[in-house]
Design goal:
CATH superfamily of the largest domain: Reverse transcriptase/Diguanylate cyclase domain
Distance between the termini: 125 Å
Oligomer: single chain
Largest sheet: 5 strands, parallel
CATH architecture of the largest domain: 2-Layer Sandwich
CATH class of the largest domain: Alpha Beta
Number of strands: 10
Radius of gyration: 38 Å
Length: 555
């Protein structure tokens, strides 16, 4: 006997379309009746005696949610499919909780897809009704792209161990696995959140996106939509990844997976608020091959690392291989430029160099493992430079996101890596400036006091850097910021001011004065004096004559 289907929708054109566009009898079904709302459906429910109820949600008098709840109480064996619109996700979730098996969009009903859904629902009927429908479909020549499910499926725990390569030798010959693979091809599918920041939780906020409920919703949506195409079950789920196994009775062409993956991505975005990318591994004929299939699906997903807009990736396209002689990290010259830019807190120059790094990475498109290693090299270089300025991941004053190699090895997109490094650099610079406002002022004040006392001694920037526990470049930056002039210029001004005082108040010769204020070379002293005072020492003294040339005071 064919499977009885009842359609409930308040739009006449929808009921007419459902009745006319599908070859019901040819596929083992019978269009047994229809109603315009829930109350009308309940009035004829016993007479129609449907095996499957295909119902709209928003209807007058009694809506679909109320209808489903009532039918599940009186006829729990009836399978239910929901007709939904794009703005009815909350209703669909409620319908699923009440026992609905799946949903279909009214705006884009495809006869083949609807038949697949109906067959999936029919597979959940009591065994005798399901076998009857399969028999009718076979004798009438009807076909379905969703093949009949294995009567005995292996447990999810067993399948999880299989895709992770943890099956014990004696487990590979278990009857449940043998039955699952008997005459079937298994394909491991991995759906991965494309970007953590893209998972907005369908408008419910970031706190919803990371909750177990969000992941559960995503798993449910993916599993339901995958069953439109094949027998499927989820076997692994984490915060960013869901793995499923799809079963077919024949090997599938690549373009089929492009279609399936696109359907999964659309459903995930609509019903779980998740932007996903989907990777498919090659076919597996036995349990021992599932680990390989999982690895292939994960490898296929690497195709999305460099962007390009694709969401579905099928294993088999050769991965790019970077020339072993090509340098992915910064050159020696760029490394020196980066060190200097960090010392000067030159955010623009740091951004330029980091941007150059990523531009090179995107141009070369090396395998993801190589790209991640290059990112780690950049991170450790930056971390080393910032540590010299007093900022490290262990510093309690470092209030930005902690530098963490685990975040870097988890990059799924080069764009994600770029944003992470932007935040890291910005946060580190902010921390350095925060530290330098107090520490820098105190250190420079102490240094200036020392220089006023010891200006005549040999004193270099390197010695000053050691004294203040700063790098030479950073000391130069902070010194100029606090005093308004450079270190060398400041020291020269101290010396020249003392020399000018001696020229005014004593008859000491210029060479003696030069030695007293810290200059060994009289010619150099003369050049510096003229640069600071605008005239030579001799001319300066002439302007400040102090009595007889023979009256030279001693000190």
């Amino acid at each position: 006997m064919p499977i009885n289907v009842m359609v409930v929708d308040d739009e006449l054109i929808v009921r007419i379309g459902m009745k006319s566009v599908i070859d019901w009898e040819g596929n083992g079904f019978r269009y047994a009746g229809e109603a315009s709302d829930g109350l009308e459906a309940l009035a004829i429910l016993d007479a129609v005696n449907p095996d499957i109820l295909l119902t709209d949600i928003k209807m007058p008098n009694m809506n679909g949610i109320e209808l489903i709840e009532t039918v599940k109480r009186s006829k729990p064996g009836v399978r239910i499919l929901v007709l939904s619109s794009h703005d009815e996700f909350d209703y669909v979730k409620n319908a699923m909780k009440l026992g609905a098996d799946d949903y279909v969009l009214k705006a884009s009903v495809d006869p083949d897809k609807l038949i697949r859904l109906l067959r999936e629902a029919a597979g959940k009927l009591k065994p005798e009704r399901h076998l009857e429908s399969v028999s009718v479909a076979a004798t009438s020549g009807g076909e379905s792209r969703t093949q009949s499910a294995p009567q005995v499926l292996a447990s999810e725990a067993l399948m999880l161990r299989a895709i992770e390569g943890r099956l014990e030798p004696d487990e590979r010959n278990l009857p449940s696995l043998a039955e699952a693979f008997s005459g079937r091809f298994a394909y491991v599918t991995v759906a991965r959140i494309a970007d953590d920041e893209a998972w907005t939780g369908n408008g419910h906020g970031d706190e919803w996106a990371s909750s177990p409920a969000a992941l559960e919703t995503l798993v449910h949506v993916l599993e339901l939509n995958a069953r439109k195409w094949a027998q499927a079950s989820s076997v692994k789920a984490s915060e960013r990844e869901v793995a499923l196994v799809l079963w077919f009775t024949e090997q599938q062409p690549r373009d089929r997976f492009a279609e399936i993956g696109s359907d999964l991505a659309i459903a995930a975005a609509r019903f779980a608020g998740a932007t996903i990318e989907v990777g498919f591994g090659g076919h597996c004929r036995e349990a021992g091959e599932l680990a390989r299939g999982y690895a292939q699906a994960v490898q296929a997903l690497e195709g999305g690392f460099y962007g390009g807009g694709d969401r579905v990736f099928v294993f088999g396209i050769p991965e790019p291989v970077a020339d072993a002689g090509v340098r992915l990290s910064l050159s020696k010259t760029q490394e020196k430029e980066l060190a200097l830019a960090v010392e000067r807190l030159d955010e623009r120059d740091i951004a330029r160099l980091v941007g150059t790094f990523f531009a090179n990475l995107k141009a070369m498109k090396p395998p993801v493992a190589q790209a991640i290693q290059a990112c780690l090299d950049l991170y450790y270089a930056l971390k080393g430079h910032f540590r010299k300025l007093g900022v490290s991941g262990e510093d309690p004053k470092f209030e930005v996101e902690r530098p963490d190699y685990r975040a870097i090895i988890g990059f799924s997109k080069v764009s994600q890596a770029e944003r992470w490094f932007d935040r890291y650099v910005s946060g580190s610079l902010q921390a350095v400036r925060s530290l330098s406002r107090d520490r820098g002022r105190e250190e420079i004040q102490s240094l200036v006091a020392y220089m006023r006392e010891h200006y005549a001694e040999s004193f270099t920037l390197k010695q000053a850097a050691t004294m203040t526990r700063m790098s030479e470049g950073y000391l130069s930056f902070v010194f100029k910021k606090e005093t308004g002039t450079g270190f060398v210029e400041f020291l020269n001004e101290l010396r020249i001011e003392r020399a000018a005082q001696l020229l005014r108040d004593t008859h000491l010769p210029s060479y003696a004065i030069a030695e007293r204020v810290g200059y060994d070379n009289i010619n150099y002293f003369g050049r510096i004096f003229k640069k600071v005072k605008g005239m030579s020492p001799k001319r300066y003294r002439a302007n400040y004559t102090i009595g007889s040339a023979t009256s030279i005071p001693t000190e």
